[in-house]
Design a protein that fits this description.
The chain has helices at residues 3-18, 24-38, 56-64, 77-85, 125-138, 156-173, 181-190, 192-195, 216-226, and strands at 46-50, 69-74, 92-97, 111-117, 139-150, 230-237, 240-246. By secondary structure, the chain is an alpha/beta fold. The chain has a 7-stranded mixed β-sheet, with helices on both faces. α1 packs across α4, α2 (24-38) crosses α3 and α5 (125-138) crosses α9 (216-226).
Protein backbone atom coordinates (compact mmCIF):
# COMPACT_ATOMS: atom_id res chain seq x y z
CA UNK A 1 0.00 0.00 0.00
CA UNK A 2 1.27 3.49 -0.85
CA UNK A 3 2.86 5.05 2.25
CA UNK A 4 1.54 8.56 1.63
CA UNK A 5 -2.03 7.33 1.08
CA UNK A 6 -1.81 5.24 4.24
CA UNK A 7 -0.32 8.11 6.26
CA UNK A 8 -3.14 10.43 5.19
CA UNK A 9 -5.76 7.94 6.39
CA UNK A 10 -3.92 7.32 9.67
CA UNK A 11 -3.84 11.07 10.35
CA UNK A 12 -7.54 11.24 9.62
CA UNK A 13 -8.10 8.25 11.95
CA UNK A 14 -6.26 10.03 14.74
CA UNK A 15 -8.40 13.15 14.30
CA UNK A 16 -11.67 11.19 14.55
CA UNK A 17 -10.37 9.28 17.57
CA UNK A 18 -9.77 12.59 19.36
CA UNK A 19 -13.53 13.10 19.23
CA UNK A 20 -13.79 10.28 21.79
CA UNK A 21 -10.67 10.98 23.87
CA UNK A 22 -9.84 14.68 24.01
CA UNK A 23 -6.62 13.99 25.95
CA UNK A 24 -5.53 11.14 23.68
CA UNK A 25 -1.88 12.13 23.31
CA UNK A 26 -1.50 12.51 27.07
CA UNK A 27 -3.08 9.08 27.55
CA UNK A 28 -0.65 7.57 25.04
CA UNK A 29 2.27 9.25 26.81
CA UNK A 30 1.21 7.94 30.22
CA UNK A 31 0.79 4.41 28.86
CA UNK A 32 4.26 4.47 27.33
CA UNK A 33 5.68 5.91 30.57
CA UNK A 34 4.38 2.80 32.37
CA UNK A 35 5.82 0.44 29.75
CA UNK A 36 9.17 2.21 29.80
CA UNK A 37 9.31 1.94 33.59
CA UNK A 38 8.45 -1.76 33.87
CA UNK A 39 10.91 -2.56 31.04
CA UNK A 40 13.73 -0.35 32.32
CA UNK A 41 16.00 -3.31 33.16
CA UNK A 42 15.17 -5.41 30.07
CA UNK A 43 17.64 -5.16 27.20
CA UNK A 44 15.19 -6.13 24.44
CA UNK A 45 11.64 -6.14 25.82
CA UNK A 46 8.69 -7.67 24.00
CA UNK A 47 5.60 -5.43 24.04
CA UNK A 48 2.19 -6.36 22.62
CA UNK A 49 -0.38 -3.79 21.42
CA UNK A 50 -3.79 -5.47 21.56
CA UNK A 51 -6.41 -4.18 19.11
CA UNK A 52 -3.73 -1.96 17.59
CA UNK A 53 -5.83 -0.61 14.69
CA UNK A 54 -3.67 1.44 12.28
CA UNK A 55 -0.76 1.43 14.73
CA UNK A 56 -1.14 4.85 16.37
CA UNK A 57 0.05 3.64 19.79
CA UNK A 58 2.33 0.95 18.35
CA UNK A 59 4.25 3.59 16.39
CA UNK A 60 4.68 5.84 19.42
CA UNK A 61 5.87 2.89 21.51
CA UNK A 62 8.48 1.94 18.93
CA UNK A 63 9.79 5.49 18.71
CA UNK A 64 10.13 5.82 22.50
CA UNK A 65 11.55 2.32 22.95
CA UNK A 66 13.59 1.62 19.79
CA UNK A 67 15.31 -1.32 21.52
CA UNK A 68 11.98 -3.10 22.07
CA UNK A 69 10.23 -5.59 19.84
CA UNK A 70 6.67 -4.27 19.46
CA UNK A 71 3.93 -6.51 18.07
CA UNK A 72 0.60 -4.99 17.03
CA UNK A 73 -2.34 -7.41 17.06
CA UNK A 74 -5.65 -6.74 15.32
CA UNK A 75 -8.29 -8.55 13.26
CA UNK A 76 -9.06 -5.79 10.76
CA UNK A 77 -7.17 -6.28 7.46
CA UNK A 78 -7.48 -2.68 6.28
CA UNK A 79 -6.30 -1.13 9.55
CA UNK A 80 -3.37 -3.56 9.61
CA UNK A 81 -2.50 -2.56 6.04
CA UNK A 82 -2.39 1.09 7.14
CA UNK A 83 -0.20 0.14 10.09
CA UNK A 84 2.25 -1.88 7.99
CA UNK A 85 2.55 0.89 5.39
CA UNK A 86 3.35 3.54 8.00
CA UNK A 87 5.51 1.63 10.46
CA UNK A 88 8.34 3.75 11.92
CA UNK A 89 11.82 3.57 10.44
CA UNK A 90 13.28 3.17 13.90
CA UNK A 91 12.37 0.24 16.12
CA UNK A 92 11.40 -3.37 15.51
CA UNK A 93 7.69 -3.46 14.73
CA UNK A 94 5.55 -6.23 13.32
CA UNK A 95 1.82 -6.58 12.84
CA UNK A 96 -0.13 -9.81 13.23
CA UNK A 97 -3.73 -10.52 12.33
CA UNK A 98 -5.47 -12.28 15.21
CA UNK A 99 -8.89 -12.11 16.85
CA UNK A 100 -8.92 -11.39 20.58
CA UNK A 101 -12.51 -12.66 20.68
CA UNK A 102 -11.28 -16.17 19.86
CA UNK A 103 -8.89 -18.54 21.58
CA UNK A 104 -5.32 -19.28 20.52
CA UNK A 105 -4.29 -15.73 19.65
CA UNK A 106 -1.57 -15.38 22.29
CA UNK A 107 1.51 -17.22 20.99
CA UNK A 108 4.28 -15.03 22.47
CA UNK A 109 6.11 -15.89 25.73
CA UNK A 110 7.42 -14.38 27.83
CA UNK A 111 5.89 -10.94 27.31
CA UNK A 112 7.33 -7.93 29.14
CA UNK A 113 4.35 -5.60 28.69
CA UNK A 114 1.01 -5.48 26.90
CA UNK A 115 -0.98 -2.37 26.06
CA UNK A 116 -4.40 -1.70 24.63
CA UNK A 117 -6.20 1.53 23.86
CA UNK A 118 -9.95 1.84 23.32
CA UNK A 119 -10.27 -1.78 22.22
CA UNK A 120 -10.93 -4.15 25.11
CA UNK A 121 -14.35 -2.62 25.83
CA UNK A 122 -15.60 -4.42 22.69
CA UNK A 123 -15.07 -7.82 24.33
CA UNK A 124 -17.86 -9.46 26.30
CA UNK A 125 -16.98 -9.77 30.00
CA UNK A 126 -16.58 -13.55 29.93
CA UNK A 127 -14.20 -13.31 26.97
CA UNK A 128 -12.30 -10.40 28.50
CA UNK A 129 -11.76 -12.49 31.63
CA UNK A 130 -10.16 -15.18 29.44
CA UNK A 131 -7.91 -12.62 27.74
CA UNK A 132 -6.80 -11.38 31.15
CA UNK A 133 -6.01 -14.95 32.24
CA UNK A 134 -4.04 -15.55 29.04
CA UNK A 135 -2.03 -12.37 29.58
CA UNK A 136 -1.36 -13.14 33.25
CA UNK A 137 0.12 -16.46 32.13
CA UNK A 138 2.25 -14.91 29.39
CA UNK A 139 3.64 -11.85 31.21
CA UNK A 140 6.89 -12.24 33.09
CA UNK A 141 7.06 -11.43 36.78
CA UNK A 142 7.20 -7.64 37.03
CA UNK A 143 5.54 -7.18 33.64
CA UNK A 144 2.40 -5.12 33.12
CA UNK A 145 -0.83 -4.83 31.21
CA UNK A 146 -1.69 -1.18 30.53
CA UNK A 147 -5.25 -0.56 29.36
CA UNK A 148 -6.38 2.88 28.17
CA UNK A 149 -10.13 2.73 27.72
CA UNK A 150 -13.58 4.05 28.61
CA UNK A 151 -14.44 2.80 32.11
CA UNK A 152 -17.67 3.62 33.89
CA UNK A 153 -17.94 4.09 37.65
CA UNK A 154 -20.44 1.89 39.47
CA UNK A 155 -21.91 4.91 41.28
CA UNK A 156 -24.53 6.42 38.94
CA UNK A 157 -24.10 10.04 40.01
CA UNK A 158 -20.29 9.82 39.72
CA UNK A 159 -20.68 8.11 36.34
CA UNK A 160 -22.86 10.98 35.11
CA UNK A 161 -20.43 13.55 36.53
CA UNK A 162 -17.51 11.90 34.71
CA UNK A 163 -19.46 12.14 31.46
CA UNK A 164 -20.07 15.88 32.05
CA UNK A 165 -16.37 16.44 32.72
CA UNK A 166 -15.44 14.52 29.57
CA UNK A 167 -17.89 16.42 27.37
CA UNK A 168 -16.76 19.81 28.66
CA UNK A 169 -13.11 18.98 28.12
CA UNK A 170 -13.96 17.85 24.59
CA UNK A 171 -15.80 21.13 23.97
CA UNK A 172 -12.81 23.14 25.18
CA UNK A 173 -10.52 21.07 22.95
CA UNK A 174 -12.78 21.75 19.96
CA UNK A 175 -13.12 18.09 18.92
CA UNK A 176 -16.91 17.77 18.77
CA UNK A 177 -16.86 18.74 15.09
CA UNK A 178 -14.41 15.93 14.21
CA UNK A 179 -15.84 13.17 12.05
CA UNK A 180 -16.97 10.09 13.95
CA UNK A 181 -16.06 6.41 13.54
CA UNK A 182 -18.92 5.62 11.14
CA UNK A 183 -18.19 8.66 8.97
CA UNK A 184 -14.51 7.73 8.74
CA UNK A 185 -15.34 4.22 7.58
CA UNK A 186 -17.91 5.52 5.09
CA UNK A 187 -15.23 7.77 3.59
CA UNK A 188 -12.81 4.84 3.43
CA UNK A 189 -15.37 2.73 1.54
CA UNK A 190 -15.97 5.57 -0.92
CA UNK A 191 -12.30 6.34 -1.71
CA UNK A 192 -11.52 5.21 -5.31
CA UNK A 193 -7.81 4.75 -4.52
CA UNK A 194 -8.65 2.33 -1.71
CA UNK A 195 -11.33 0.51 -3.69
CA UNK A 196 -8.68 -0.38 -6.27
CA UNK A 197 -6.61 -2.11 -3.59
CA UNK A 198 -9.14 -3.65 -1.19
CA UNK A 199 -12.41 -5.53 -1.36
CA UNK A 200 -15.66 -4.00 -0.15
CA UNK A 201 -15.61 -6.34 2.87
CA UNK A 202 -12.11 -5.20 3.81
CA UNK A 203 -13.23 -1.56 3.76
CA UNK A 204 -16.35 -1.96 5.87
CA UNK A 205 -14.67 -2.02 9.30
CA UNK A 206 -14.93 -4.77 11.89
CA UNK A 207 -17.03 -4.01 14.95
CA UNK A 208 -18.91 -6.22 17.33
CA UNK A 209 -21.36 -3.38 17.94
CA UNK A 210 -20.96 -4.17 21.61
CA UNK A 211 -19.53 -2.15 24.47
CA UNK A 212 -19.20 -3.92 27.83
CA UNK A 213 -19.29 -0.66 29.89
CA UNK A 214 -17.38 -2.31 32.72
CA UNK A 215 -16.33 -0.24 35.73
CA UNK A 216 -12.77 0.18 37.01
CA UNK A 217 -13.84 -1.91 39.98
CA UNK A 218 -15.03 -4.76 37.73
CA UNK A 219 -11.82 -4.66 35.69
CA UNK A 220 -9.79 -4.71 38.91
CA UNK A 221 -11.68 -7.75 40.21
CA UNK A 222 -11.27 -9.62 36.91
CA UNK A 223 -7.58 -8.81 36.69
CA UNK A 224 -6.89 -9.95 40.25
CA UNK A 225 -8.82 -13.17 39.66
CA UNK A 226 -6.74 -13.69 36.52
CA UNK A 227 -3.52 -13.57 38.56
CA UNK A 228 -2.34 -9.96 38.50
CA UNK A 229 -0.75 -8.86 41.79
CA UNK A 230 -1.55 -5.14 41.83
CA UNK A 231 -4.13 -3.16 39.84
CA UNK A 232 -4.93 0.57 39.89
CA UNK A 233 -5.68 3.56 37.63
CA UNK A 234 -2.60 5.69 36.95
CA UNK A 235 -4.43 8.36 34.90
CA UNK A 236 -8.01 9.54 34.40
CA UNK A 237 -9.89 12.19 32.42
CA UNK A 238 -13.67 11.91 32.75
CA UNK A 239 -14.51 8.27 32.00
CA UNK A 240 -11.21 7.70 30.14
CA UNK A 241 -8.71 5.76 32.21
CA UNK A 242 -5.28 4.23 32.06
CA UNK A 243 -5.46 1.11 34.22
CA UNK A 244 -2.18 -0.62 35.10
CA UNK A 245 -2.09 -4.27 36.15
CA UNK A 246 1.20 -5.67 37.40
CA UNK A 247 2.38 -9.30 37.50
Amino acid sequence: MDEKLAADWVRRWDVQQERYVADREERFTVMIDVVEHVCRDVAEPLVLDLGCGPGSLTTRLARRLPHARVVGVDDDPFLLALARATRPEQGRVEYVRADLAGSGWLTWRPVDAAVSTTALHWLRPERLAEVYRDLAGALRAGGALVNGDHLYDEQPAIRDLAEVVKERRAARAGVHANEDWKTWWAAVAADPALRERFTADELRGISTGYGNRLSPQEHTRMLREAGFEEVAPVWQSGDDYVLAALR
